[in-house]
Amino acid sequence: MLTRENLGNANRIVVKVGTSTLTHATGKLNLLRIEKLARELSDLANQGKQIILVSSGAVSAGMDRLGLKEKPKTIPEKQAAAAVGQGILLHIYEKMFGEYGQIVAQVLLTRADSVNRKRYTNSRNTLFALLSHGVIPVINENDAVAIDELKIGDNDTLSAMVASIIDADLLIILSDIEGVYTANPQTNPTAVLLSEIADITPAVEQLAGGPGTVGGTGGMYTKVQAAKIAVNSGVTMVIASGGRDGVVRDILQGQKVGTIFISKENRLQIRKRWLAFGVKVCGWVTVDKGCEQALLTGGSSLLAAGITAVNGDFELGNTISVKSANGRELARGITNYSADDVRKIMGAHTNEITQILGSKPYNEIVHRDNLVVLV
Q: Which of 320, 313, 324 is closest to 364 using CA atoms?
């Protein structure tokens, strides 16, 4: 397990860089910062480490080339800007990494690549093949074709998904803010940076705010959600400021930079990871204290008797979240019943289901084999 002291032992490293780090306030690309990042990552590759770069900035690069002053508001306009910008961004990366003897490859992903089990596996195999050839994959969400229902949502989540898919040791998210604070540092001068977070509780999630910049789409909240994916996949994650020179090197040297999220010791199996994070969550149920304890300590299935509330409009076969009374996410799994049926039978004992619904196709709402505990 990686901690501050031994981050230098990380071999497979995913680095996510946000739009605010890659661009000036004018919206134009910050070439000096991109060059420094390419040099730093190339040096790590020269040390024998496997590097994967998840990069935002395609829409901004396209906006600049198209002469747009404001970020497009419609999906087709955003997709058009991304289509123009992706080529520009990759050309710059190819040129700058090439100066340091590195080969890069563009990989564009959408939600469908994680929802579909076969495409999830294919993405994993492709990335491993690239890494085996010493290539640095440059990954972005395929904004040119993705629509809201298919979008992973932001590159913070995308980077965590990638880290999970390829069994990364470390995920570094470079942001316009140093890390997670006790309050919003932009409005509260007394806010204190949290150097380490060992457990992502509801209180930690409440510390995260909304989007921090005009150019970016992900605020600290999305980064904390990304951390949940990473740590449950056995990946240690660090959030740090992308504006700091040598930030990746400092992190790997164990310096107290940004906020580190310590990974869980047990890496989820590939199927469990896909089940928990590759599939869209269609709703959630709230459970009582007894059910919570049974799920966390006994490896139990989720039964109707322990459910106290139902949210969403899910169907049989969808992935749902299981939450405690205080809102903490406990688990995710594939439901055997629709939301409407769960509302009818919640709180009921298993032997009462037939009387309520007229039939009982399953004893469990979610069977333990299809359930992933996240805490």
A: 320
Is domain 4-271 in CATH 3.40.50.720, yes or no? no
User: Residue 331: helix, strand or coil by DSSP?
Assistant: strand
**pLDDT on residue 153:** 53
Residue positions counted in the chain: 375
Query: What is the Cα–Cα distance from 184 to 212, expressed in whole angstroms?
Result: 10
Residue 332 has pLDDT above 50, yes or no: yes
For the domain spanning 280-373, the CATH number is 2.30.130.10
How many CB atoms are located within 10 Å of the residue 209 CB?
Answer: 16
> pTM of the full predicted structure?
0.79
| Distance of alpha carbon 247 from alpha carbon 42, whole angstroms | 14
* Helix, strand or coil, per DSSP, at residue 23: strand
Give the span between the Cα atoms of 150 and 31, in whole angstroms: 31
Order the strands of the 50-55 sheet from edge to edge. Answer: 104-109, 136-141, 50-55, 12-17, 170-175, 236-241, 259-261, 196-197
Q: How many CB atoms lie under 10 A from the CB of residue 165?
A: 27
- pLDDT of 199 reads 87
Mean pLDDT check: name the lowest of 99-108, 114-123, 139-148, 177-186.
139-148
CA-based end-to-end distance of the chain = 17
302, pLDDT greater than 90: yes
Supply the pLDDT for residue 268.
Answer: 63
Exposure letters 342-375 (e unless 16+ CB within 10 A, then b): beebbebeeeebeeeeeeeeeebbbebebbbbbb
- Would you kindly state where each structural domain of the chain is located, as residue ranges? 4-271, 280-373
Which amino acid appears at position 143 of this protein?
A: D
Tokens of residue 336, six digits: 């055997």
Beta bridge partners of 331: 322, 373
Q: What is the DSSP letter of 369?
A: G
Task: Name the amino acid, one letter, at 255.
Answer: Q
| Phi-psi category of residue 317: left, alpha or beta, with phi > 0 → left and psi -120 to 50 → alpha | left
Q: Which residues of 219-256 are buried (b: 16+ CB within 10 A; e: fewer)?
A: bbbbbbbbbbbbbbbbbbbbbbbbeeeebbebbbeeee
